[in-house]
Write a structure and sequence with these properties.
By secondary structure, this protein is mainly α. The protein has one domain.
Length: 66
């Protein structure tokens, strides 16, 4: 819960979207690659149900990262 007890307040709900989740994944991958010095390594995403949809959308929207 990114905002603690305030996560589900109306003003914070704008951050709980699929688009925001995908941007969060990109930032996470950037941080991990930079921290470990593995910028040239591929990232493969997959999943089922919601995770599978997110994986497909990530590949479509950010093909240079996934």
């Amino acid at each position: 819960m990114p905002f603690g007890d305030e996560t589900f307040n109306r003003s914070n709900l704008k951050y709980l979207t699929v688009e925001q989740a995908m941007f969060d994944y990109v930032e996470l991958i950037k941080m991990i690659k930079d921290t470990r010095g593995i910028q040239d390594r591929a990232v493969i995403v997959g999943g089922g149900s919601y995770g599978g949809m997110i994986a497909a959308w990530l590949r479509m929207k950010f093909p240079n990262w996934f």
